[in-house]
Each structure stands twice: as structure tokens, then as C-alpha cells.
């Protein structure tokens, strides 16, 4: 068996083996992406009006007081023209007067929870995510093998063969090849990033860069206006888009503070996120860490100032699920997942016909 024959065998049999798992991942990915896209494209009847620093400071104070369980407050932008208070799996939309426009919990949507866990771990708890991860990596390898096999016999693009004319294996195979060429690169990225999300220890260390020591003006403690003003002065040409506090683990009770006359106030660390320019792909990537209790800026780090490894690592999750990415990117990966579903369906039908169809005829 020569190398090309071996690669074809690997491509066919390994592709068939992982096709079932990848079909589950891709079909649920289409659903999850569609839900995300519908949320992003709904303006809730609001028109974008930028808030002043005074309005942002007042918004923070009121929203965090009203919704202590929420971890992030996002200010209106041209992409989402309303205020958002968000926590894991939940978001509350507010107008400029802080009247509730909508309250959304992802798991309350029909089939969403089932689809999410099917996509993440096939509904088999912790072990399922590792099966998912290795199936994703195998899917990426099969994609590269498919590109190589096409490259050896390439005859150019044939748009008329993109969609099958009938259900014959030859028509399905041609469509498989054409569609595969269109989505091979983004599909490979989705596969590899899915693997890396599970094995996050391979890349999260690159994000732990220690910012360069800088001196910043000290703000007034527990004063949002003073602190946002100083933070904006660090990057005067960037847009201050959100403020986050550390998430508390579900069910975790706050630790009782020790009693004593010299007891220091507990530090409240917040992260202030910026966008350097409106067209930035990875949003909220420039961050300032501030101690809200004392008003001291602990660190400031722009995405562009990270080393290459840090910038790449910052994109691992966003490239997979569109977190903090434009709606157009979410539409792209949802379309890729939809096309990938078609490719796998065509290949499964063709493989089963060629592998098992002949044996059935001989037996008959």
C-alpha cells in the first residue's frame, strides 16, 4: 500500500468513525450559533446613543447594586445599542433609563440545554468532553488529509458541482469535495480550537503575562466616576465598553471576615475593558485592572502589547464560539457548521454504499 492509498484509507475509515460524533457537534453548533446570532441582531427597538463617563459611572453603581449576581455590565455600542448586565448563561437588557427591555437565560430556550451539552460532552459528563476533544482533533487531521488528496488531482473549482444534482454517489462525492474546499480552513480552525478548549492548559499560560510596571493616577476609593475617568485617561483614544467583577462559584458562600480594630476593607477588584477602534475583531481585549475599594489601578494591558503567543491564545475560544467577536463571524462559523453537516452526510451515504452496498449484492 503506497502513501496515497494509505491516506485514502485513513481519510475514509477515520472519517467514517468520527463522522457520527462530528455530525452531533456540527448540528448542535448550527443551533447554538443561530440562537447567538438572533440575539445579536435584535436591537430591542433601541438606537445607539453613546453614554458619557458620568452616565457610565451612574449605570455601574445602580446596576451592580440592583443585580449583585451579575458579573459584567456592558455599555451601548453600535453593535448592541443597549446596556447589558450579564452572568454565565444569563443577560438582562436595559435602556438608558435602566428600564428592563428583556431578560434572557440561555437554558430556558427550547432544546438549548440539551443541545449545549450534546455539543460539549455528548451528555456523558466529564468523559464526554475528552471524546469530543479527540474527535475534533481527528476531524481537523482528516480535513488536512482531504485537502492534500484534492491537491494531488486538482482540476480547479467547479461551482456547478457544489450542490448534488441527484442522490447518486458520484454526485454526492463531487459535492463533498467542492463544499470541503470552501470551508476547509474555517472547519479546521473550529476543530482545533474545540480540542484546545478542553485541553486549555496547553495555552492559557500564554495569557498570564505580567504587565509592564507603570505609574497611574490614584482615583477615589469606591467612586466609579473618578475611577472611570482615570482609566479613560490611560487610553484616551479607546472606547470604554464594559466593566467586570470576578465571578463567584455557584453555591460558594462568602468567607466571614476576621474581627478586629485594624481590619482592612476587603479589596474589590474590577476589570475595565476597552476597544481600541470600532473595527476591532476581538472586542473587550484591552483591559485595566482596578481596586475599586482603594481606587488604585493595578495593571493595564493592551491586546496589541501581548507577545505573539498571548495574542494567539486570546483567540482560541473566540474563534470557536464567537465570544466577543462580530456578529458576521458568528454567521460565518454557523454557516461553516451547516455546510460541514452536509459534507459529513454526503460522505456517510457514499461510504456506506461503497463499503456495505457491494457486500449486500454479493450475498444476495
Automatic annotation (TrEMBL):
UniProtKB keywords: Membrane, Transmembrane, Transmembrane helix
Span list, region Disordered: 242-264
Claim: Transmembrane is one of the keywords in the record: yes
Domain of life: Bacteria
Transmembrane segments: 12-32, 131-151, 179-199, 329-352
Matching InterPro entries: PepSY-ass_TM (IPR005625)
PANTHER family, sorted: BLR3280 PROTEIN, IRON-REGULATED INNER MEMBRANE PROTEIN-RELATED
Protein name according to UniProt: PepSY domain-containing protein
Taxonomic lineage of the native organism: Bacteria, Pseudomonadati, Pseudomonadota, Gammaproteobacteria, Alteromonadales
Amino acid at each position: 500500500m503506497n502513501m496515497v492509498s494509505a491516506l485514502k484509507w485513513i481519510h475514509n475509515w477515520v472519517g467514517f468513525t468520527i463522522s457520527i460524533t462530528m455530525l452531533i457537534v456540527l448540528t448542535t453548533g448550527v443551533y447554538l450559533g443561530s440562537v447567538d446570532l438572533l440575539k445579536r441582531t435584535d436591537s430591542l427597538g433601541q438606537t445607539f446613543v453613546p453614554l458619557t463617563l458620568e452616565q457610565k459611572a451612574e449605570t455601574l453603581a445602580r446596576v451592580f447594586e440592583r443585580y449583585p449576581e451579575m458579573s459584567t455590565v456592558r455599555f451601548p455600542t453600535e453593535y448592541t445599542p443597549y446596556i447589558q448586565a450579564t452572568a454565565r448563561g444569563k443577560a438582562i437588557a436595559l435602556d438608558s433609563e435602566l428600564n428592563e427591555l428583556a431578560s434572557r437565560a440561555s437554558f430556558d430556550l427550547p432544546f438549548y440545554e440539551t443541545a449545549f451539552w450534546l455539543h460539549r460532552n455528548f451528555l456523558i459528563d466529564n468523559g464526554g468532553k475528552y471524546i469530543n476533544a479527540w474527535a475534533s482533533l481527528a476531524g481537523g487531521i482528516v480535513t488536512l488529509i482531504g485537502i492534500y488528496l484534492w491537491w494531488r488531482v486538482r482540476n480547479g473549482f467547479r461551482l456547478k458541482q457544489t450542490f448534488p444534482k441527484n442522490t447518486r454517489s458520484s454526485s454526492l462525492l463531487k459535492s463533498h469535495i467542492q463544499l470541503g474546499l470552501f470551508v476547509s480552513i474555517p472547519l479546521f480552525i473550529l476543530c482545533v480550537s474545540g480540542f484546545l478548549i478542553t485541553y486549555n492548559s496547553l495555552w492559557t499560560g500564554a495569557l498570564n503575562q505580567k504587565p509592564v510596571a507603570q505609574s497611574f493616577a490614584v482615583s477615589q476609593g469606591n467612586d466609579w466616576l473618578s475611577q472611570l475617568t482615570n482609566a479613560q485617561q490611560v487610553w484616551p483614544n479607546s472606547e470604554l465598553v464594559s466593566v467586570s467583577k470576578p465571578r463567584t462559584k455557584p453555591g460558594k458562600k462568602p468567607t466571614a471576615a476576621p474581627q478586629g480594630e485594624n481590619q482592612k476593607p476587603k479589596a474589590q477588584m474590577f476589570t475595565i475593558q476597552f476597544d481600541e477602534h470600532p473595527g476591532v475583531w476581538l472586542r473587550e481585549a484591552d483591559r485595566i485592572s482596578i481596586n475599586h475599594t482603594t481606587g488604585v489601578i493595578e495593571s493595564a494591558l493592551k491586546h496589541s502589547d501581548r507577545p505573539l503567543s498571548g495574542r494567539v491564545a486570546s483567540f482560541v475560544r473566540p474563534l470557536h464560539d464567537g465570544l466577543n467577536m462580530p456578529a458576521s463571524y458568528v454567521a460565518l462559523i454557523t454557516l461553516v457548521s451547516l455546510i460541514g453537516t452536509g459534507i459529513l452526510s454526503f460522505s456517510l451515504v457514499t461510504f456506506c454504499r461503497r463499503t456495505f452496498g457491494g457486500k449486500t449484492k454479493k450475498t444476495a
